[in-house]
Amino acid sequence: MSAPQKRLEVVGRSRRRVDARAKVLGQLRFADDLVLPRMLHAKLLRSPHPHAVIESLDASRARSHPGVHLVLTGRDFPVPFGIMPVSQDEYPLAPERVRYVGDPVAAVIARDEQTAGEALELIEVKYRALPTIATPEEALAHPETRIHDYGEQGNIHRNQAYEFGDVEDALANADHVFEDLFFYEGNTHLPMEQQASLAAIDGEGKLLLSSSTQNPHYLHRQLAQVLQIPAAQIRVIACPNGGGFGGKCDPGGHEFVVCKAALLLGRPVKIGLTRQEVFYVHRGRHPVLMKLRTGVSRDGRLTAMHLQTLLDGGAYGSHGPASTFYTGVLTPVTYELPRFKFEACRVFTNKPACGPKRGHGTPQPRFGQEVQLDKIAEKLRLDPAKLRLNMVTKPGSLTASWLRVGTTGLAECIRKAVEISGWKAKHRKLPPGRGVGIACSTYMCGAGVSIYWNKMPHSGVQLLVDRSGQVTVFCGSTEIGQGSDDVLAAIVAEVLGVDTGVVRCVTGDTGLTPVDLGSYSSRVTIMMGNAAMQAAERMREQIAGSVCETLGTTPERVAFSQGRVFAAEDPGKGMSFAEAVAITEAKLGTLSTVGSYTPPKPPGKYKGGGVGPSPAYSFSACVVAVEVDEKTGWIHVPKIWIAHDIGRAINPVLARGQVIGGVYMGLGEALMEEQVFRRLPPKLSAALVHRIPSMLDYKSLTALDMPEVEVALIEDPDPNCPFGAKEVGQGPLLPVMPAVANAIYDAVGVRIDELPITPDKVLAALELKAQGKTPRIGPARFPEVPYPKPMFVLPPWEGGDGNESKMPRPLGVAAS
Amino acid sequence: MSGTARIERRRNVQLRLGVNGEDTEVSFAPYKTLLELLREDLGLTGTKHGCELGECGACAVLIDGEPQLACLKLAIECEGCSVETIEGLARGKELHPLQAAFADHGGSQCGYCTPGVIMTAKGLLDHEPEPSRERIREATAGILCRCTGYQQIVDAIEHAAAELRGERK
Fold first, then answer.
1. In what order do the strands lie in the sheet with A570-576?
2. Which member of A16, A664, A700 has the closest CB to residue B104?
3. pLDDT tens, A265-304?
4. A175: left (phi over 0), alpha (psi -120 to 50) or beta
5. Range of the domain at A273
6. How much is the ipTM here?
7. Same structural domain for residues A384 and A332?
8. Which of A45, A175, A262, B44 to pair with A747, CA 20 to 30 A apart?
9. Which residues contact B127 (CB under 8 A, 6 or more apart)?
10. Which residues of chain A lie closer than 8 angstroms to B108, CB-CB?
11. A700·B138 Cβ contact <8 A
């Protein structure tokens, strides 16, 4: 940076976010608020069967129903899609086979929703039911009932194994080996806004889709592929999302349907999913069964870990290949772990596809690891906070799996959480029925590689300024409520020394904005932010170079602050920002700069080493207090304390909101949220159906259930991040679930090794305790999973170079 | 049912009601809920929907001063009623204190539940100018929010209440 260091004027101050006014006025237009002249309405017919062959589909009666303009079926969509290049396994409308209750098979486009709904009932579909796969155990036991004809084998979608150093050898030499099984039930995003999309043909004859999507760029590419028209003929506008949480990352069948219909009819076509359909679209948290074998030294340091995961993927690939990696790759980032073996397997089942939900694959192993650490501390008679504090990873260090840790505020987070919660006076010291638990976590600040392989930037920003003094910033980033527009405006405003009020953000529009990969993996602040910073610094340099003569100073001594441009040594000598732009515009012509950001190359060079690396990692430590009623098993959470290493908070009021919101979602997953299924009785086909596709039955916390959260932001700016700012959208969710489980143990001495932790499970564990049995509720066995032979990579401290290498001993031979 | 009967059933009906203080006359399909009337026939899309089944609370509006879910109210039941929606809350260009407090204290993240929760809060503060945090939580518990964890919503309502009582500027 060439400019004089100045005190930050925008970054770090609590401000009204730039999009707040439109939101509180009800002016903000979400996708379903859009209306166009001659607009038609689409509705989807969905399969009532979890697994069946479509023998015939007769839509003739629907087609002739008054008010119906078009009926689409699987035949209209010969090309499949899938967010990951390796999992192109889904069709907008299923052509010949349905794989879950809710799989769309036909679409009616009519003058209004009512008519479309009536016509759906006139479509006659003959299904031939197939055997259904309900669980990963069934998927492994019945490879003959194949849900897809691709994948590793049978119903195994992804299967992988990595070993970083000889783990069996380390476990054999450990003072203690802890072996635990955990289960994390699936749950869903439940965004308040149901997905909606409006497709139209614009005045130039191009397709325009306005949609509630988190990833307009990936959707853009998929539309071109499925509709077989050039991407340049398609424009995708990501409307502000009414909550995403990962649920609007995958392209949805409905988005292709309205586009196809608009192309065929030449009229605008809109769809709004019902809440029930949102449950079917899902792409939520994978149910994951986990086995952790962890070696520990006498003094409470980890020597090795063998982590096995089994993911219930649901009916389609979705982000599955990435999800599978994420059930392990971030495990070594928090604590020093000399050796690490990670085996993961994702299987198909006849349920809605699982995908990315806030934390994407990492909450499950984090739950297991942090509960196991609590057991380790208990056994070794150590304080669980101190146990963690003693082994946090060092700044800039590498993990056994070759992830670069970068800056870490984890130790500070633990100290702070311990301090503000009064941990030392409470843990193991509260009266029966009351307890506290601690847990920590980490999350990426953006995935190091794109979803499709390419060498281009992950985020691009274009900046326009003109003589009016207005600043317009363009970026493909998507506002899903997290405040990305505010971050964009703040960074540009800070660099140019103007108020965020003069910055106009144009975002999430593939027709206008440079590519940004989307709102996922907590990447936006870092990647968009760095691109914005580069664009703004380039603009500042142009302005400084143009006005320095007038100000009688050198370009380096030109200061930008509070809407003025002046000589640093003589602040009285200056002009307004608009005047400075006018001088620059006169000298250089029309003013525009661009910035882009590509993450650094990861140190791990082995195949698969691209998942997990990130420019920076955030860290969190959380203490939860619980009160457990031993008669009813009821769990009350009176208070939660959390410290989050954010690097720097761009807008503290928003950052705190992200932390509390993450804690909220984590507490819901800990105590009640679950997306579960049941088999119908045999006389009703024994098919597998969604137990609770409604908001009343899918329990989530209300304002009355949610405790007050005390938040401490730990700010140690990270050099890879704009103004040092790390992520805050996902990380703070992660420690909550294990902290709850650990607090329940502290309160009543029972271990609930599966989520959600409901009163009936607590009661059952208390009963076991009363009978003198092991007071634990959780999975009892881990099935035989045919994991492949692991790829062996030597850790950095054992002479590795980041590539695959030879195992020092033959596989399968126990270490001495 | 014959085709003619269907068309008959669809004939529009007339309704008069007050919307944000203005007398409004509207012709609409009789099966519509107040939510659909507001959003589709009056263009007031500030009122949101999250389920259309009375489960999420996003569509809360004030009917004769009381918070009610617009998705559970048939529009034809609203003859002569006074309906207040988020669009009617600001005082000219100035935000209502509730709107300003939500904007300043993080009460609105994605903004989707915001209209429903602000209207519900207005219904509360009109009757109870000094509610406790617990009372605020109770009064707004029918509106689900997936972003905020509710804490900053409660903060915002507390701040707005204080301002409405003239205690803060």
1. A558-561, A564-567, A570-576
2. A16
3. 999 999 999 999 999 999 999 999 999 999 999 999 999 9
4. alpha
5. 40-130+192-243+248-281
6. 0.96
7. yes
8. A175
9. none
10. 20, 23-24
11. no
